[in-house]
């Protein structure tokens, strides 16, 4: 599946996952059903919340969050440009306007609360914050900002499943928490996601919206409930499959052990790469226990030819990546973001120099050592 000896991510699929999927196939129930419900309950318990809603993707989670708040034309949502494009797309697809804000800097790639505050207008209805790489953003400041302006705070926890922090369990501090279980994520279902909400009424709205807003679900009909149903609002098909949720349950159980292995790899990376001239390792001052470590990012010295460095890593059969090209610079968002008037100097500077190195629970110490040596060999001699 890859041309690299050491890939950015390697899925951790074992006999437990195979057996869980086999049981679903033998059950004859493939769409959302009892396995999905059980996965939702276990995930809610892990977060310490009353309920959770499993969905078909992290993008679906974000879209449902925006829909559940009733956002639409004329409304604005402040969010970081440094994120995968799905966050902005979820806002724009509802007719609302994504308003991009800057990050703190090369040491902290999360949304800057001060710049977010400058972007708030009377039309602002929500803030979306992404916990980059699994490190908590400044939720204390952002929650205060949202509260002071009477707007919602949506946590994009695509990088941070079941991750505790100084602010609390990520995804439960804001009004709505959105999780991704894409194939490369810490908890991997191939495709999938989860939504939690502080307000039970919002959570119920999300649950209904994910399945066409039917007043009677397929599970209820299968269990002998009413055959007829009503549809009192517009909904979508964002249901997950039983196969995916079977994978999710096993991966959830394996998450703590996988996190410990990620921490070991990050400790080694930090130690091995620290001597490189001009390197910045974001969040290096934070204890490894305070992150999900979805990514291991570095920021290269100014003037570094990133493509040339990546070419040298590629020649050593080591994959690297960029997370992420800033959304406000994409063609589809130039007009929505205000064109040339939308400048995010910190984001643009940092993301021209950001590089992601291989990190996953299966990466061994010898592989980390090999990556570190290859990066050191390719590193510019002067910052």
TrEMBL record:
One of its GO terms (molecular function) is transaminase activity. Keywords: Aminotransferase, Pyridoxal phosphate, Transferase. CDD domains: AHBA_syn (cd00616). It comes from the Bacteria. Its cofactor is pyridoxal 5'-phosphate. Belongs to the DegT/DnrJ/EryC1 family. L-glutamine:2-deoxy-scyllo-inosose/scyllo-inosose aminotransferase subfamily. PANTHER family: DTDP-4-AMINO-4,6-DIDEOXYGALACTOSE TRANSAMINASE (PTHR30244:SF34), TRANSAMINASE (PTHR30244). This is DegT/DnrJ/EryC1/StrS aminotransferase family protein. It comes from Streptomyces atriruber.
